[in-house]
Amino acid sequence: DAGVIQSPRHEVTEMGQEVTLRCKPISGHDYLFWYRQTMMRGLELLIYFNNNVPIDDSGMPEDRFSAKMPNASFSNLKIQPSEPRDSAVYFCASSRTKNEQFFGPGTRLTVL
Amino acid sequence: TQLLEQSPQFLSIQEGENLTVYCNSSSVFSSLQWYRQEPGEGPVLLVTVVTGGEVKKLKRLTFQFGDARKDSSLHITAAQPGDTGLYLCAGYSGTYKYIFGTGTRLKVLA
C-alpha cells in the first residue's frame, strides 16, 4: 500500500522564482496537511484540507504562499516569489481520523 | 499560543542504557501523539494517548499521558542504535490541528 507521495524530493531554486511542491495523499484519507520544518521553528502546520476544501490556512506565512487541492488525490503548495528564508523541508501528511497522521518523505527546498 | 516543550533537546547515550524524554505544556490536550523521525524521512507515528494517566507500551518504549493531559513522557528501556532519531510529541488541540513539540534528538552509540 503506497504511503503519502511527495515530489520533488529536493528543489534548489533562485530567489524570485516560483516553486511548486506536490503531494498525493493515501487513498481514502479525507484530511491533508502541509507542514514546514526548520531547525529554528520545528514542525509548523501551514494549512489543512478536509474533503479537498481548505479548512485552516492560518499557518501560511504570507501571501506568497498558496495551496490547492483540486481533487482527492492531489494537492500542491506554491511559493511565488520564493525567498531564501523559505528554505526548509516541506511535508505533506494525510489522515482519516484525528488520532493518526501519515507523513510523506518531504521536499527539501533551498532558495539561493 | 499553545506550546509543547520537550526535554532534553539532545541526548547521547550508550547502547543498553535507559532514558526518558519529556513533553510539557501549560495547555490541556484531548490527545497526544509521539513520533520518531529519521534523517531524510517524515515523522512516523509511534503511539496516540487519549486518557489522562494512560500508559501504553510498544516493545521497549513506554508512553504515559499526564493525569491533567498537559504533559507526557516517553521511556526507552535498554536503548539500541536503531532507536536513534528525532522524537516529537504532538498535542491535538481540536479541529484536526496538531501542535508539535520542539523535539528531542536521540543518539544511541553502539
Give the count of helical stretches of chain B.
Answer: 0
Terminal Cα span of chain B: 40 Å
Number of strands of chain B: 11
Share in helix of chain A:
under 10%
Strand content of chain A: over 45%
**Tally of separate helices of chain A:** 0
Q: Rg of chain B from C-alpha positions?
A: 13 Å
Largest sheet of chain A: 7 strands, mixed
Along the chain, the helix and strand elements of chain A come as: EEEEEEEEEEE
**C-alpha geometry of chain A:** globular
Oligomer: heterodimer
**Poorly predicted ranges of chain A:** none
The radius of gyration over CA of chain A amounts to 13 Å
Secondary structural class of chain A: mainly beta
Please tell me what the overall shape of chain B is.
globular
Percentage of residues in strands of chain B: over 45%
> What does the largest sheet of chain B look like?
6 strands, mixed
The average pLDDT of chain B is 93
Order of helices and strands of chain B: EEEEEEEEEEE
Helix content of chain B: under 10%
Low-confidence segments of chain B: none
Q: How do you describe this structure in short?
A:
The complex is a heterodimer of chains A (112) and B (110). Chain A is built from no helices and 11 strands. Chain A is mostly beta strands.
Overview of the structural elements:
The complex is a heterodimer of chains A (112) and B (110). Chain A is mainly β and 112 residues long. Chain A is built from no helices and 11 strands. In chain A, strands 2, 4, 5, 6, 9, 10 and 11 form a 7-stranded mixed sheet that branches. In chain A, a hairpin with a 6-residue loop joins strand 9 (88-95) and strand 10 (102-103). Chain B is mainly β and 110 residues long. The model of chain B has no long low-confidence stretch (mean pLDDT 93). The interface between A and B is medium-sized, with 22 and 21 residues.
